[in-house]
Amino acid sequence: MAKNFIAEIVANEAVAEKIFKLTVDAPELAESARAGQFVQVKISDNFTLRRPFGIASTAGGRVKIFYRVVGHGTEILSQRQAGDCLNILGALGNGFTSCGEKILLVGGGMGLAPLLCAAEQFSADVLIGGRNRGEVVFWQKEFLPHAEEIFITTDDGSFGRRGFVTDFLPEILSAKNYSAVLTCGPEIMMRGVARLAHEKNLPCEVSFEKRMACGLGACLSCSIDTVNGRRKVCKDGPVFDAKEVFDYERDNQTN
Ligand SMILES: Cc1cc2nc3c(=O)[nH]c(=O)nc-3n(C[C@H](O)[C@H](O)[C@H](O)COP(=O)(O)OP(=O)(O)OC[C@H]3O[C@@H](n4cnc5c(N)ncnc54)[C@H](O)[C@@H]3O)c2cc1C
Ligand code: FES
Prior knowledge:
The chain is 27% helix and 33% strand. The protein has eight helices and 15 strands. The protein has helices at 27-32, 72-77, 112-121, 133-143, 165-175, 187-199, 242-245, 248-254, and strands spanning 3-16, 19-25, 38-42, 51-54, 62-68, 85-92, 103-108, 124-130, 150-154, 161-162, 180-184, 204-207, 223-226, 229-232, 239-241. Strands 10-9-8-7-11-12-15 form a seven-stranded mixed β-sheet, with helices on both faces. The chain has a six-stranded antiparallel β-sheet with strand order 4-3-6-1-2-5. A two-stranded antiparallel sheet has the order 13-14. Helix 5 (165-175) runs parallel beside helix 6. Bound molecules: flavin-adenine dinucleotide and FE2/S2 (inorganic) cluster. Flavin-adenine dinucleotide is lined by residues 38, 51-54, 65-68, 70-74, 110, 113, 209-212, 238.
């Protein structure tokens, strides 16, 4: 059940341009959180709405999140220092459910954050995608102690293979026997990943991001259309079975 925590900041450091890793001391939250769940952080008393972030690690009684500075809230968050306290609501949402023999994690950009927690908790390989070297090198370092094998692509070819994760994915799926694919990142990427997993008859879970207000299922601001009707990303998700949110038959007709 979600609870409110006052957590002390252990570190809040830049890991790449405009990307920060925040570590807070929160043993009770760390103990109860599952991979794929998220937290709502109160930035300061001047912000009415909390900001949602995927839980990236729960090891050692500490919760880690990775965030990109995109607006006023994340800018203020980046100025908070070790020793400051943060008001955090969590753990929220449902989390990933596949944890079979061998999982493949496929992530792009900040979507890799919840997948890092999955790598910590399940036996997994990871396919990391980013725009350029700066966007993937720190993820490689973070996944190194947890993932069994790491594959990397960059759009500009400055690190790993040149191209998108979906260019490389068929090769990886053919080379190994995975029991499921978990993906998080831009929607267009997740749609492509889910389709390739579907073609291999592999279960696929996708983690969605929508602008949120309450984060608790009360305000409907995060609703999305699924094959099972309207669903709330904060409460029914953020993790969904890919078949529930992507309509492959309709995609085939429009392609
Ligand atoms: C379940 C969930 C998990 C998330 N996990 C992470 C994470 O691990 N790391 C991370 O960096 N970000 C994550 N986000 C996105 C993050 O919440 C937003 O980037 C953040 O709230 C922006 O706050 P801000 O005040 O700096 O920006 P604002 O001033 O509110 O907005 C600045 C810009 O960011 C865009 N933006 C704001 N919120 C979102 C959103 N939810 N999705 C997409 N674009 C948004 C706005 O459209 C605008 O263009 C997650 C969002 C959700 C819903
Ligand atoms: S954010 Fe309020 S219902 Fe999801």
